Amino acid sequence: MIELTSRIDGETFKLFYLEEKLKPLGYTIGGGWDYDHGSFDYKIDDEVGYQFLRVPFVAVDGALDTKGTTVRIQKPLLLSHKYQIGLDDHVHVGNLKASIDQFAEPQDPDAQFPEKYVDLGCSLVRELEEVLLK
Prior knowledge:
The protein is of the alpha+beta class. It has a single domain (2-132), classed as YugN-like (TATA-Binding Protein), CATH 3.30.310.100. 21% of the residues lie in helices and 31% in strands. Strands 1, 2, 3, 4, 5, 6, 7 and 8 form an eight-stranded antiparallel sheet that branches. It comes from Priestia koreensis. InterPro entries: Uncharacterised_YugN-like (IPR014967), YugN-like_sf (IPR036491). This is YugN-like family protein.
């Protein structure tokens, strides 16, 4: 994980506004969101797992599933997730979760981020600053 310095860190926006601005640029709402925090993710590559820019945020007023919620952007991160090949090694007979969730556990959820994508991540953050801080 690499934290990136950005002028959007600490800025507040309506969540709906962020969705309108970021989704056309290729960002998706990260799968690990909760009612008080979440992230926008931009997939950079899927080389041996996947690499992405994550823009985390926290709710300032209300829950994320509430209309009109304001969120505060936190420090953008470059992340790399490396998934194991094959079946989930934590599955055992009688494991109810395994019968529902068939995805393998990450081999390394915080793998080394490839150096060749750091400049791209920095340019994506500059693009975010231009789009959001007009």
